[in-house]
Amino acid sequence: MKDENFLKANNARSLWHPMTAPADSLKNAPTIVTGAHGVRIRDIDGHEVVDAVGGLWNVNLGYSCQPIKDAIAAQLDALPYYSIFRGTSNDKVIELAEDLRTFFAPDGLTRAFFTSGGSDSVETALRLARQYHKIRGEAGRTKFLSLKKGYHGTHMGGASVNGNANFRSAYEPLLPGCFHIPAPYTYRNPFNETDPVRLAQLCLQALEDEIGFQGAATIAAFIMEPVLGAGGVIPPHPSFMPGVEKLCRKHGILLIADEVITAFGRTGAWTGSRLWGVKPDFSCCAKAITNAYFPFGAVMIAEQVAEVFETDDTGKAAIGHGYTYSGHPVGAAAALVTLAETQRLKVNENAAARGAELHAGLLKLKEKHSAIGDVRGGHGLMHAVELVSDRATKSAPDKATPGKVQKAAYEAGAMIRVSGPNIILSPPLILTPADVQEIVKAVDAGLSAL
Ligand SMILES: Cc1ncc(COP(=O)(O)O)c(C=O)c1O
Questions:
Q1: Measuring CA to CA, which of 121, 136, 148, 221 is 20 to 30 A from 301?
Q2: Are residues 74 and 190 in the same domain?
């Protein structure tokens, strides 16, 4: 490894970081992480903190999961790569598809299409949704509906259904035929409605209105995250997603659950769809599927959708889509062991218990710090603290405020993430009660620095 001075001097000189301006990385040197164990990361100066971001909502089992590391190493020796395009397969991907089928059976999802990450999974689901309707003779169903504030990755299709201007404006024009519905975000919404039940109903009415306006026969699918993540952790009222499912069924629209964050226990349930008792037509997975140790993803497909593809004899069901790394054997080996460890450790139960503690801790901080406008969470380990400059008017904080909180929290013992006015927390699901208190203490210190 190059020495410390070399790394610090060249930190952002020859690389551009995702999700920030190159000039910003040059001006504000990113923290260089060089090691990790358990739920902790260590930087180049030897400062060690709890990773309250959990990598990027993906290191659910922490940084020291030896069985996954061993499986990856063994697979590199046995078969480091082989494609699963037409005519070939590999042993690990077959095994994995069977295990995923068992895991997702309660969601009604019985087939897997493998990808290299979340954006790939979203793109795959959008494409297969259009193809499904073409196979069935409804070629006019090409449009997509989604939620404002939703995040669905950065491919052109995903960005088009994305509900946040930050990820869209610079890349327009996007895919035509994508339309957005207000999110059930009680803190801010166009209806000025703070009651979650009434707001869910209003958003559902907006959805039905849009379906009527566009014409159901032109709409392929509705895509949503069971709990909105990157848009600021927005858990909908329990009536919302079942209401969406009902409208989709009524109008022949496919329901795509973007579970890139919520699958595998993060919400306290094994999947976000299961949390709300919904059976989607497609479920997009990635992130924690390999505990982040290998870039990998899967789209899980419902039985009734699979049947349409599998019984077609017209040739329309030939899938003209796939990635070089679809079904990568090293990723599949990692996912097999991750799934087994995820279930053995029952991390969903720990996510629910620790999530409740963290939520309570953040609500207490709201009593102390007037910079907190809203605390969101309450379903496993997904939390947001929305900062404001004035609680009464809910005005946005000064641009520098979230960064100040982050820096002081880091010095006090926790890596937290800031996104716009939000502090976002998504720690590993193996967190202990003591880790929770460390995170709360660090966030408290961060806010006290304002
Ligand atoms: C809900 C959701 N969908 C899709 C994506 C995109 O995944 P990736 O960054 O692996 O392409 C993300 C990433 O954060 C996500 O949170």
A1: 148
A2: yes
